[in-house]
Amino acid sequence: MKATYYLVCGRTALAIYRSQADGERLARLLHQEAMGMRVASRMLPEDARPKAPGKRIACALSVMLDTPLPIEALVVEPASRRQSAYTRTILDSDPFHALSCIHFENDIFVASPELVYYQLTRGRDIATSWMLGSELCGRYALDSDAKDGMHDRPPLTTPEALDRFFARSHMPCSHAAGKRILPYLKAGARSPKEAEIAALMALPRRMGGRGIPGVTLNRTIALTPEAARVAKRSHLEGDAYLETIDENVEYDSDAHHLSREAHERDERKANALRMMGVSLTTITAGQLNSWSAIDAILDGLSRKGGFHKRLETPGIKQAQQHLWRELLSGRARI
What we know:
about 45% helix
């Protein structure tokens, strides 16, 4: 008799990764492994098959995992499919996917972050794929109960691991938006706003970005002794550092509500960066939410680097405005 297990995937797995307690626990386990699937592959027999939870098991999983019904689960055989108010199965016969999971408890396994991304970006647009990838590769998790709509969490994966997952899958989906953005996806975002700004800068113009190379999120900048005395610390961390033009782009959501101490700290940071030859651009919430303002700022950064020989066509400008609108509308969040 073949061994069986429950492989929670899709939106249910994403909800678990977004849970503060369970998400951080799984993040620690994932960091102990080079790939999430290696945890499962050591624990599961080669002939093990994921099964669909029935009503009783699905309700128990919903309580234990603190996630809403229906529970999404992966199955490999058409006869195992179920669609109900309690269970929604995803049919996937790729044996690599069936082992791309991490042990959660007893006979329950959670789909790897790479499998979750693969599943949830199928049929999605560029903006949605970017935001999900940024969250999984970033230092935050969306949380509707948190004050800022998110909480801190270690990164679960990397853009390179996501790309390898697509390459190893039976269906690599090379033309899907979720696959096409991966060469440009930036790891390390600390908030959705940082991820949005990174998309607007780093994605190529044909995808709605500016095609600015060398974008690094939350890079640690070591200071010279003179700059360190000004900043009163030995290093600084930039929101988005543009290596190609030595520009640090900061997102400031509370530009008009800073305390005197915070304002002084920001001024020390700006002065220290200038001493290092690094320019500073600050994007406020109002500027990010205004197409004319953010368009002018990003155009200025692009012109400063001279990254493109050809001028932007009306089609490129339309694609850029469309990406900005999709990112800022909230529709790009799963």
